[in-house]
Amino acid sequence: MKDLSEKTGLSVSFLSQVERGTSSLAITSLKKIADALNVSITNFFDSYQNKNFVVKAEEQKTFRIEGSNARYTRLSGNFSGKVLEPLLVTLDPGKTHEGKFSHPGEEFFYVLEGAVIFNVDGQEYLVKKGDSIHFPSELPHFWFNPLEKRAKILCVLTPVIF
Predict the structure, then answer these.
(1) How many CB atoms lie within 10 A of CB 6?
(2) How many angstroms separate the CA atoms of 84 and 53, rounded?
(3) In which domain, by residue range, is 139 found?
(4) Does the CA dihedral 73-17-67-82 come out positive or negative?
(5) Residues near 94 by Cβ (< 8 Å), separated by ≥ 6?
(6) Which residues, 6+ apart, have CB-to-CB distance to 84 below 8 Å?
(7) What string of pLDDT tens digits covers the 162 residues of the chain?
(8) Is the same domain home to 124 and 71?
(9) Are 53 and 67 in contact (CB under 8 A)?
(10) How far apart are CA 20 and CA 94, in angstroms?
(11) Count of domains observed in the chain
(12) Residues 34 and 63 in one domain
């Protein structure tokens, strides 16, 4: 535990709480732990194999990430060498994707329903139904739903993090 704490910068007491299930992790903390253990972050999620390369609607799994108001639905199967992560993101009315993120890779979003304001490197972009935005993930970014109805967004990002 002490070694993991030193490698991640997370306190031993926090790691202990996570291990006991009395505290939750933000995705950034989970990524630090995966990097420290030299494993993919996907090792911490249920394995989902798709040998037919087709994901039927009834097979899609929706999940939430600690610290985020968004709901995510994984849209792809799992195969060796995958570099794209396609997701359906649902953001409830008036909700913000908490925190400002910056990480390696790229992000592409296409708004299917509603509208979303993306803040990328301090610049705001209003992206409405039918519009898209594509940017390097290294730039600090977050998004929020300014409307009184939910927003649905097709998101494709690299690298694969889920």
Answers:
(1) 11
(2) 14
(3) 57-158
(4) negative
(5) 144, 145, 146, 147, 148
(6) 76, 156, 157, 158, 160
(7) 888 888 889 888 888 888 877 877 777 788 888 888 888 777 776 655 556 688 888 888 888 876 677 889 989 887 777 889 999 999 999 877 666 778 889 999 999 999 999 999 999 999 999 999 999 999 999 899 999 999 999 999 998 876
(8) yes
(9) no
(10) 34
(11) 2
(12) no
Task: Count Cβ atoms below 10 Å from residue 97 Cβ, excluding itself.
Answer: 21
> Closest by alpha carbon to 90, among 76, 101, 75, 105?
75
How far apart are the C-alpha atoms of 69 and 60, rounded to whole Å?
19
Q: Using alpha carbons only, give the angle 38, 29, 157 rounded to the nearest 5 degrees.
A: 80
